Amino acid sequence: MKTIDLVVPCYNEEEGLAHFVTETNKVIDTLPDYRFRYILVNDGSRDKTYLVMKQLARRYDNIKYISFSRNFGKEAAMYAGLQHTTADYVVVMDADLQHPPEVFPQMIAALEEGYDCCATKRDEREGESFFRGAFSKLFFKLSNKLTDVKNPYGAMDYRMMTRQMVDSILELSEVQRFSKGIFSWVGFDTKWISFKTVDRRLGKTSWKFSSLFRYAIDGITCFSVAPLRFTAVTGAVIFFISLIYILITLVQTLFFGITTPGYVTTMSAVLFLGGLTEMSIGILGEYIGKIYMEAKDRPIYITKFSNFEEENNEEQDG
Ligand code: UDP
Ligand code: MG
Predict the structure, then answer these.
(1) Of the four listed, 78, 279, 289, 298, which is most buried by Cβ atoms within 10 Å?
(2) Which of 40, 93, 94, 300 is the best mutation target for the ligand 1 pocket, counting ligand atoms within 8 Å of the beta carbon and taking the most?
(3) Are β-strands 34-42 and 2-10 bridged in parallel, bridged antiparallel, or unpaired?
(4) What does the pLDDT profile of the chain (318 residues) look like in tens digits?
(5) Is 5 a pocket residue for ligand 1 (Cβ < 6 Å)?
(6) Which residues, listed in sequence order, are joined to residue 92 by a DSSP beta bridge?
(7) CA distances to 193, 212, 231 from 236, in Å
């Protein structure tokens, strides 16, 4: 019998978690040929998510949980969950039922067919503002162009992967994790399926536009040095244009005398170069910051509670 681990990052999901498990179990019951296990990761929730998890684990023996010492972010939660997987197939999904378990059969079929991964993308973006939609389209285009990461528009984290692919993902142990990039970077054959997105039923999303912007910047800088090259190239182009301009003004001054008016040119040059320099330093800083954080080599997450150890103890006792 094949096993499937469900990795579920949870942040402030006390209202919906039990419902999520009930709904998911309905689908699991229709797939008796596979043994499912939940790995719930409590990412430092401020509400009673942890207690709900513990209750659920007491009720169902296929529920494992890890609880962080604080909020480390969804990426860290996914990593922790993946590290604890042992199954043949592994699913990464949200706890808010925006990732419908109803597509499990489709995902299993794809993997049995020989794909290494069956990932989802959204087709319709209901309830998303025009601005937000345009922004994410631009992001997908840009990151596909600039990096080794190739994702279709609307690609989501929700996916089922083979053991081999999960092991490869775990080899990328960087602290600044950008999962959509990592999933794509490791390669393997991915089948894309889509479904209509649904609104969050319970709880509320913890994403703000500023964090979305941050996410986009990270998506590119974690996988490409193209922005650095961009600053070098613009610097070089401006340098050569300036050389020509200096020659022209020199010739003008030497042969025709000093021409005083020059307020506009001076101001433009000062402001333009100032802006460009600041921007270049900013881009540099973005990378230096990343190097700094990676160099510290801190753990990606810290566990406070988990029922994985219990299992080990039991094994020792027996
Ligand atoms: N999540 C998490 N840590 C965080 C934020 C979110 O583990 O700091 C979890 C959350 O509980 C959910 C999933 O990540 O299961 C996606 O979060 P959310 O629904 O808020 O994001 P969206 O659906 O808008 O992408
Ligand atoms: Mg959600």
Answers:
(1) 78
(2) 94
(3) parallel
(4) 999 999 999 999 999 999 999 999 999 999 999 999 999 999 999 999 999 999 999 999 999 999 999 999 999 999 999 999 999 999 999 998 889 999 999 999 999 999 999 999 887 655 567 777 788 788 888 888 888 888 888 888 999 999 999 999 999 988 888 888 999 999 999 999 988 766 665 556 666 777 778 888 888 888 888 899 888 898 889 888 988 988 988 888 888 887 677 778 888 888 888 888 888 899 999 999 999 999 998 999 999 998 887 655 544 443
(5) no
(6) 7, 159
(7) 45, 32, 9
pTM above 0.85, yes or no: no
Residue to probe by mutation, ligand 1, list 11, 91, 211, most atoms within 8 Å of CB: 11
